[in-house]
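RESIDUES AND SHAPES:
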Amino acid sequence: MMSLRLWLLALCAAPLVQVARCKCYMSNGTLILSNEYQPCSSTSDVPDLDQICCALNRSNAAGGDWLDGFTIDTCLPNGICQNNYTANGERKIIYFREQCTEQQWTSGKCLDVCEDYNDESSGSARMTPCDGTPTSDKWCCGDSTACCGGSDARTVAQKFGQAIATTSTASTVSLTPIPSSSSTIPNPATTSSATAPSAAQGLSTGAKAGVGVGISLGVLALIGFGYYLAMSLQWKKQAKRRANVEMYAGNESLEPGHMEKPVVYASYVPSPEPQEAPTCRDAQELHAEHVELESPGQGLK
C-alpha cells in the first residue's frame, strides 16, 4: 500500500518538475510561452548543456519536409541548435542560437552571442559557420559568411561552458623569490643563475680610494675652469682698451668717444617770430577840391 502511494506521488510530481524545467527565456528576460522549446539534455562531456533551449517539441522529425511544418532541432555540444529539413527534395541545414533556462543572460550560463539578431517572436538568432561545419570555431550572425574575414566573427567554444581555446600560448617566466632582507632584488630567472652581489657588503678599500681620487680631480677641474673664465674676461677688457688707445694715438684733438668729423645734420631755419597783426588805421579824410555852388539865379564864384 505504501509503495503504491509513493508511485502515485511521484507520478503527480513528475509534470510539476517537467514544467519547472521547461522554462526558457529570451535574451531580454522574456519567458517563452510556446512549449516547442525545451532544454537540451546534458552529457558527461557537456554537463551544462541543459541550460540551452532548442526546438525539441515538434511533430515533424529532423530532415522532414518543411511543408509539413518546422522540424525538430538538434542540440549541438557547442550550445547551437541545428535544424535539418527538406525543401523541394533538397536537404537543408541551418543553425540558430536559441533560448536559455536562465532569465538573466548576464549570469554567464547562456550562449550570449548575436543578441542584436534576435527574432522578435521567438528570440532566436540565425548563425552561419565560417567553415561550413557545426564544429566551426568562427560564426557569423545571420545567414551569410560575410563577417568571417573580419572582427565581427563570433568565436564559439567547441563545448558549451568551456573556455575558448586559443592558438597562442603565453610564455611563462619563473621568478626568483625575493628574500626577506631588502639588500638585493633578484631579476627574473634566465639561463644564467648568477645573481648580483649584495650591496650590504660595502665597497673595498681600493674602490673607496678610487672614489676619493675621482672627487678630488672633479673639484680641481671645476676650480681650473672658473679661473680660466675669470682670466678670459680680463684679457678681453685689456684688448679692448689697447684698441682704443691705438685708434686715437697721434690726434690729440680727439677724445675717446668722439668721431673725427662731426656729423652733419639737416640745416635748421628758425621760423620768424610771431608779430602782432596790424590794426586798422585811423580814419582819414579823403582829398577833394572845394567847389562852391551858386544857388539858382547866382553865378559861380
